[in-house]
Amino acid sequence: MSGFNLDALKQYIPKDIPQLPNISWPKTHTSMNPDEQEEGTDRTSPSMAEGSQADLPVDPTSTNEPTIVLTEPEPIQHGPKSNLDLLNECDNFPYYQTDTKMFFAHINTYYALYIKDLPDVELGYILPSVAQVFSGLPDWKVDNRERSLTLITGSNEEERSKAVAMTCQALKATGHFQVLKGWRDELYPVYGPNKELLFSIERSASALFGVVTYGCHMSAYTYAKRPKSESEAGGEEEELKLWVPRRAATKQTYGGMLDNTVAGGIATGETPFESIVRESAEEASLPEELVRKNAKAVGTVTYFHIRDRRAGGETRLLQPECQYVYDLQLPEDVVPKPSDDEVEGFELKSVDEVKDALRDGEFKPNCAVVLLDFFVRHGVLTPEEEPAYSEIVSRLHRRLEFPMA
After folding, report:
1. What pLDDT score does 21 carry?
2. pTM of this prediction?
3. Distance in angstroms (rounded) separating the CA atoms of residues 309 and 89
């Protein structure tokens, strides 16, 4: 922390976020604006024209049309959850194609994150109430008209990472942001348009900056014998079952909910496969040799999540994510066991039992999405039984409008 003015950070934490004027779509804030207009035409977005200023005070003298209210993200509560409900709960950032006004209401609320060497490349989205904390701080420039936050220090990954680390440490020291109470001492990578590492950031701070984060999820399954009914002949048949852990109730995020067999974040410098090997040992006590030999990479799942209260810390923080997905078929005599305090225990569940738990909302939102992907790939979820099949399959692989690895 040498050379970093912590008192300046405390001084610039505002009690009230200033009202910002209506502005046209910034020239540097366009990567998610699919509208193409001729030079010289009005670039004001639909929601901004309607005065959408979520997360900011409302000007009572405004003559604009009624504001589009960005409601607090909440878990879906009504009855049993459909597969589409599960997807909507995780991938809940609006799509331009299906809800244009709400899309622009969100886009024009946030500040875009940049670094000085890439002034036209958006790296994430930040709430105004977060961006204003950076006003007047060393290493950062806040532009309220362009609605941008720029890291102006550093010409390489090491220098940028140092500046970001000092800022995050100072933010943690003030206690201003609840999300930083889950400090992990783990670094997440942030990439540029050529897949170059731009800087690393403390895991718990990544949602404050709205950058893409990466994880690995593995579904461990087995084919267990079950007796056939009396009306069937031929003895026993095999039944697909999955190993499902329950998260410890004391976890800061999604405590007590069901999870994928193995799941975790991918740290800077770590490959997805090495991450899944490490997590398999740490979370499920699975032998390294077994995982290395039998775990199969089966693709990715991507989504754009707006965090609700279950994620811990502030709500409405943005979490675009890419999960590298693995399958592992286990022999019947291999039983996952907790090896840390993050998991209460494992249960071998039938497909029907997993479906029931999904409908009851027992699974962590992104784990539910990974299971939908598993069901699609294993022929459990089919077009014949799922009316929203094509939408679900396509949205399991959402294109994120930020640079990715």
Report:
1. 35
2. 0.83
3. 13
